[in-house]
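Morning run. Coffee first, then this:
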Amino acid sequence: MPLLMATVTDLQSHVTALHSIYLNGSIAYRQATSGISDLNLTVVLTAPLTMEEQHRIASVSQTLRRDYPVISTIDITWVLLDEVLSITAIFKWGFWLKHCSVCLYGTNLSEQFGDFEPCWEIAKAFNHDIAAALVTIEQQIRRTKSISEYQYYCRCAGKKMLRSCFMLVAIYVDDWAYTDQQCANFFLTRYPDKATEIERLFVLINGPQVPKKASLFMLSQFGSWIVNEFNNIERKIG
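And here it is:
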């Protein structure tokens, strides 16, 4: 709570067009691990950040990470109010704010949406970028020489693939997955032959550290399988 209060106060002080702040991820779901989990936030703005504000936020983030070692990093998603309220983005931002977010500050936009049922539209909204995301993470892993950066990229890769695995089966279940384990459980009920791959994803997320060759292999092999399976379902469902 001290971290969250400090973060909200700092954002209020440094962002002029601030509309609302939402907490996401493991901290929101009360599943965080001290010193390992990230602080994930969605910040809604009424106007884009200025360059000066971007520099201030970068400095504030560094200070918060230093003062609150209970988190490993701060990940902020910035989005404009008009985009959140656009009817074309309802399956992304409507679902995200209603089911995956806790409002910390401002007008709670989740109250403007009803509950969402699992559907392919939501799966596409959150899974359409999987191929490009995995390519980006692969490049980051290949380039980095920092152990801490490498571990962070591995966690990102593992979590991205695990969330995408759940989205592959979301249309067949009657509930939402909020934790890594829930994503794995739902996925394995339909793809039990992928148990080994899921175990390896948890290693990427939680450790122990694996050689780059192993993480790149997972991105290439299992990542490609996820992308192909997503495309197969898309061709069937549309």
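The CA atoms of residues 200 and 218 lie 8 Å apart. Good start to the day.
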